[in-house]
TrEMBL record:
It catalyses: L-threonine = 2-oxobutanoate + NH4(+). It comes from Quadrisphaera granulorum. Belongs to the serine/threonine dehydratase family. This is threonine ammonia-lyase. It comes from the Bacteria. InterPro entries: ACT_dom, ACT_ThrD-II-like, Ser/Thr_Dehydratase, Thr_deHydtase_catblc, TrpB-like_PALP, TrpB-like_PALP_sf. CDD domains: ACT_ThrD-II-like, Thr-dehyd. GO terms for biological process: isoleucine biosynthetic process; L-serine catabolic process; L-threonine catabolic process. It is an enzyme of class 4 (lyase). Gene3D superfamilies: 3.40.50.1100. Catalyzes the anaerobic formation of alpha-ketobutyrate and ammonia from threonine in a two-step reaction. The first step involved a dehydration of threonine and a production of enamine intermediates (aminocrotonate), which tautomerizes to its imine form (iminobutyrate). Both intermediates are unstable and short-lived. The second step is the nonenzymatic hydrolysis of the enamine/imine intermediates to form 2-ketobutyrate and free ammonia. In the low water environment of the cell, the second step is accelerated by RidA. The lineage of its organism: Bacteria, Bacillati, Actinomycetota, Actinomycetes, Kineosporiales. Its cofactor is pyridoxal 5'-phosphate. Pfam families: PALP. GO terms for molecular function: L-serine ammonia-lyase activity; threonine deaminase activity.
Amino acid sequence: MTPAPSPVPAVGPEDVLAARPVLDGVVRRTPVVRSRALSDLVGGPVHLKLENLQRGGSFKVRGAYVRAARLTSDERRRGLVAASAGNHAQGVAIAARELGAPATVFMPVGASLPKLEATSRYGARVELAGATVDEALVAAHEHVEATGAVLVHPFDHPDVVAGQGTVGLELVEQVAGLRTVLVCLGGGGLLAGTAAALAGAAPGVRVVGVQAAGAAAWPASLVAGHPVVLDRMATMADGIAVARPGDVPFATVSSLLPPADVVTVSEEDVSRALLLLLERAKLVVEPGGAAGVAALLADPTAYEPPVGVVLSGGNVDPLLLMRVIRHGMAAAGRFLALSVRRLPDRPGSLAALLARVAEAGADVIDVGHARTSGRVAVDEAEVDLRLQTQGPAHAERLVEGLRRAGYEVLVS
């Protein structure tokens, strides 16, 4: 007779409290700042917990270090192994360096170059494997079986979850009277740890997990009552793109939170959040780290203030950041791409068009001028413009003004 599987342990408040002294002198007590822009939007105080300023650029070092510190000296000598898109990789590399252990980290092919380089600089050996964190995790398990090294899972271990929960303990100590805490959600370590921490330290606070809609395994899993695997994922938020919730986080979250306290946000919401954090808070945050702010932007009335938002990481590839800024400007109605068809191909026509754009108060980012397009006659040209505007209403006025002036305008 096959024995019944052992129940998956849920993490409780006492586990998070026990993890806290392990991290003394290792992690930073990251600051909390109030966001005036978000507070005005929500109608009450919104406070940002800046884990993007943590060692390694994210909260991940907390769980990685607690897990590694609780290994035996023999286990540490055999080496630490991890799979990560970058943040957990750096956390494990830092933990290994602090504890004098070798580390090998498997990262997806196409992982951010800054994250690859940072992980190597912390002393870990980096191997590329698979297209996702889940596929890299398969390679990490194979390495463990071949070498006897110890896997430090990015989220599916009680020590890791307990370590991540120390973020929540700090936040409720730093901000009195919190009513809602928003955290990003991938495999579930941060949400589970925060929920466990606040169940003991501040049981009246609502904890909400925020997933990218294009990689949202949690809603279906909570409905099913067990972790469900996604067939595909598509999101810029690589740090929270996880196809299956972890067993330990799922056991913890499902015992503490209702399904309604897991929400999803669109790519446009995330882009707008990153742009707001850059412009208004002067903070560089990666897409997954801005998920909580994205939730506030998507539905400002859904969360009772005072609100605490964990900005979970700041390790963003500069090239991705450039694309996201442009995407965020478009989502906010401040970036306008349009084509002007059938422009007369004679001297001064382009200058006259650009003068009208300038008079309307828009900034020209880029101009494309084609005379050989199959869509125009021999004596006509086509002009593609990318413009920065002051918002949706301004963009609409600009387009209508050009059309009234006789231009044939197509908005991309």
